[in-house]
Amino acid sequence: MSTITAKSESTDFDDWYFDRPFRHEIIENWAPPELVRAAEAEWPDDHWPFWHRYDNGKLTTKDPLRIPPACSELIRRMLCLPIAELLGIENAFGDWNCHASGLHGMPPGSSLGRHLDSDHHPNTGWKRACNAVFYLNSHWEQEWGGHFELYDATGTHCEKRITPKFNQLVLFQPSDVSYHAVSEVTGPETRKTLTVFFWTQSQGLMMSQFALANALKQPSKSEQTRFVILCQPRTGSSLLNTSLRQHPDIFMHREIFNHIQGHKLPQKGGQRLRKALTHPKAKAVGFNLHAFQPDRKYADWRDWEPAWDALAADATIKIIHLRRLDVLAQFASWKIAQVTGMWGPQQKLAQRPQVYIDPEALRWFHEWNRSLFEWRLSYLQGHSILSITYESLCDSWEETINECQRFLGVYAMTKLVSEEAELQREIERLGPWTTRFQLNGKAIGGSYEVSENELLLRQFRERLPYADRILELGCMEGGRTFSLARRVGHVVGVDVRREHLQRARFIQQQRNVHNVTFLEMDLEACDLESLGTFDAIHNVGLLYHMANPERMLRQLAAIAPEMLLWTYVVDDSDAEQGSYSGRFVTENPADQIGGIRSRSFRPTRSELIRMLSDCGWRDVELLTEEATAVALWCRKSAKTSSRRIPPRTMSVAVVIPCHNYAHYLEDCLKSVVHQSRRPEEILVVDDASTDDTEDVVKHWSDWGVQYLRVDHENVRLTRQAGMEATKSDVLCFVDADDLLTPDYLRSGMMQFDQHDIGVVYSDMIRFGTEDVVTGFPESVTSEEICQKNIIHCASLVRREALEMSQAFAVPVNPKVGHEDWALWRTVLAQGWKAKKQPALYSYRRHPQEISLTKSWDENPYYRLRCLDLETITLFVALSGRSAVWPRFREFLESQTWPREQTKLFLLDTSQNPEYSQLVKSWLSDCDYPHFKYEQLSVGAPGLADEERCGRVEIQDAVRLAAARIYNHLARQMTTNFVWVVEDDVIPPDNAAESLLRGFDQNTGSVAGPYRSRFHDGYVAWSEGHQILKERGESVKTIEGNGFGCVMLRSSVLKNSLFTCRQPPYDFDPAFYERLKKTGLQAKLNWDAECEHLDAALLKK
Fold first, then answer.
1. Where is each Prolyl 4-hydroxylase alpha subunit domain found (predicted)?
2. What pLDDT, on a 0 to 100 scale, did the predictor assign at position 286?
3. CA 948, CA 958: separation in Å to the nearest integer?
4. In this predicted model, what pLDDT tens digit does every residue of 435-475 receive, in sequence order?
5. How large is the angle between the packed helices 498-511 and 420-430, nearest 10 degrees?
């Protein structure tokens, strides 16, 4: 139950009175709490694009269709309040269109100064009767402010303060002494209220009905037919009016009585109507009369009795009764008209908005139509009445119009009648034309025709579906002006050439367009601020004709928050205008579509973006791009912008990790914001900085730069956080101390021309302590990126590629390894391709820099390449040596390379079932999570231990078997490195790490030495095939080695073909001869020296 309070909780004085300082009422717990909580939960945030923002910070929405469902239900209940019972105000009714009411938000820091409310509705003339305010905040603290303050009759002393309590309704009666205010909101929340206004009929409205009655009582000329079209909104009245007025003997007024404006008449309105119902030449004269106002839900029919009495009294007045059979369509069309402001034909809308159909309102609407139809027929008995429908008017227009013409006593004709010869002479006099127009069904003018579906017009409508006032620059003959005027309140078209404007005004007159104003102005010299403010600017095809484009752009930023800009640009520069680079272009002032000065200035793409930013256009969105032109949507602030990415256009986000680099961040952000292709998202991820990084980002917030704080102290995790906090298709991770060259993003995004391009990289210019360009290969394969780091960290990468490859899941420690190198290897290993772009990336070199973050050891490649995280293949060809299997098995069990980073591949060539069973039995219990076992016949059983000395056929068979084994291995590699161990060689337990530590970017293999059973030395040789006989130290470059224990790059193995009957005949010398041709080296790491098992043991 709702209860009326007896006192206020928040007051500055002791006694409380019902009517002090003016009439008001407080109702607590007015609505169901669950409904109020739902309304609070769905309240839009402060960046909602449909807020109207006042200078004092207040937020309002006037569009009922944008109000969320729970809030809408509460407003509906408020509109049904019994105002007569609560405040004693008779005949008060709610405004269901929610003019200036609806959702009202007061963000922190906002306030509403002491004021009086206007006492009349600006559109209908209604008199304000009552304001209702309902509070939604469920946890509002008194010290948060936002109190509703009621002042005395002088407006000097606040007599009462009402705290905005949850589920509290406040009603008060506005008057000329009801001063009130809202104190400043000092808490952390937005003060959320629903507001509804109640009205009563004003005296001025009643006078209009009596004026209408008097006019209808005037006698008509005997030869004239007076008639009235009785209609309702959205029944085709405009179509019928326009169609009848084409007849030369019918004089049709446009709507003398506008149902939207409340049928108000000016002074001497009766005289106007008496003159309106007579005409010196016409045989029939009439006008439309809307019989009710749908936005007054329960209007009193008796308001119209004087008019209806006068109409009923004169049976000579003919009635055309126009109605619509499909009431649902009529109701929906009326709702759409309320939202769009289009009370004319709605098929001109590019896209109809969604509307909510209130079942109760629709039921009332249907009942009203039915009752009104019956009441009209009974009231107008004795009159000649012709009933027609909207449906017949649309489906059988010619037949219906002919029927109306016959009813009015004029001959039937439906063809448009005009002074065609005179019209054609005027068209020719105004020529030559540039733009083609459709006039009375015929094409006139020049060759250039603006389509309603023109891309630029569509983009303008999509980004600004609702607007009251638009400025169009360079309107010429109005080709786009009239298209814009169909969807906005008013268009101001500006052009410098008078002949253009004469043609534009001629078309305006012929089309009877009233919401366009054409002005002649020299945009190079005029003061645009004198035109006032606008919702947006349509600036297409003009800027490139200007000698000083910066001056105009700066003025435009002072009069509108948004602008569509289409202009030509240049790709290189040879001149400067102000501080901007570009080219001067010669203009021909005699050309009616050219500039009026002898030359103009066109900036480069990136300089245009910088110019816009300097002039106040801080958020620049690329709409379309051509070879020499760009279309941009420009905003003064990116804080509340909601970008719409064109279909099939990829979006890009720039993520900037920053740790204590605030002193570099300003320059980095400037290079990103001034890109010739502005990114859709710019995010600075502050990783545990202790400097003023956040303050620097705040300075750039109007340019759309976002801020995210993390405490990882790990650039890999910081970049991952940036990826997760953005949504764009492509990401670019730019270090805070680096810079992007002006065309970097635009040039890079153009390279994503194939579905499998995952990474776009570039050459790199080093600046700071040096000034050199580092060139990278024209193409990079997965094998090449595995070998060396040739893709820099700020390369562009598809989000899809990052997510698919799970690149950030690789646990690289960025303090010791190149995390970006690991990322690119992971992405390319998935099959994505890398492509090079022409623009450069600017990489800062710091004084005495090796690395600002990484620690170093004696071999940095192992750490930087993150080889400690590498997954390798451990390959063993098992020849069937049962005697040594236990010893070899011990090695497999004790070697220390992590099991989860080892893929064990055992190739059983023994052809011995008992031996094979031993191996498989061990595999079933081993701790290798990834293993592969295959059987392959490569030669006779026991071939590996056959005596080879002097036996050519055995030597050939052994070589053939080895070639078969390693060719089989080369075609099955899935890791970047393979560790080959023969089953009679026992490496040390840490051999895998020792071998990997021997690599650098120029190394193809690193072997562990072991002594030969056939000669006095190691199975390794130096230049000239000199056998190594003495033990060495650390890592040495050699010419080749045996395959007893060797770590190989898989790319080398994959590209090798092992042969056995071409010199050199042994497979291992042949392999290393071919390795030298690749430019890669072979090395021997003495820390990985192995045991070569005794021949006697092998024969057991």
1. 21-199
2. 85
3. 9
4. 999 887 788 999 888 888 889 998 898 888 778 889 999 99
5. 160
According to DSSP, residue 283 is labeled S
Give 747-757 pLDDT, tens digit per residue: 999 999 999 99
pLDDT at 885 over 80: yes
Instruction: Classify burial at 942, counting beta carbons within 10 Å of its beta carbon; exposed 0-12, middle 13-18, buried 19 or more.
Output: middle
DSSP-derived 3-state class of residue 672: helix
Are the C-beta atoms of residues 278 and 224 closer than 8 Å to each other? yes
Residue with tokens 């231990």: 945
At 461, list the tokens. 């409508």
SS3 state at 902: strand
Q: What is the mean pLDDT of the chain?
A: 84
Task: Provide CB contacts within 8 A for 645, sequence distance 6+.
Answer: 651, 680
Report the SS3 class of residue 887: helix
Q: Say how many residues make up the chain.
A: 1100
**The residue to which tokens 């990834």 are assigned:** 930
The DSSP letter of residue 1025 is: T
Rounded distance, CA 856 to CA 849, Å?
13
User: Residue 810 carries which side chain, given as an amino acid letter?
Assistant: V
**CA–CA separation, 953 and 956 (whole Å):** 5
DSSP code string of 1046-1077: EEEEHHHHHT----SSSSS-SHHHHHHHHHHT
Distance CA 715, CA 691 (A): 17
What kind and span of H or E run contains 589?
A: none
Beta bridge partners of 934: 907
Q: In terms of Cα–Cα distance, which of 869, 819, 842, 650 is closest to 743? A: 842
**Percentage helix, strand, coil for the chain under 3-state DSSP, each rounded to 5:** 30, 25, 45
Residue 677 has phi, psi (to 5 degrees) of: -125, 100
294 and 231 in contact (C-beta within 8 Å)? no
CA atoms within 13 A on the CB side of 1090: 35
Q: Count CB atoms within 10 A of the CB of residue 364.
A: 15
- Candidates 493, 582, 500, 576; CA nearest to 531 is 493
> What stretch of H or E contains 604?
none
Tell which phi-psi region holds residue 147, choosing left (phi > 0), alpha (psi between -120 and 50) or beta.
Answer: beta
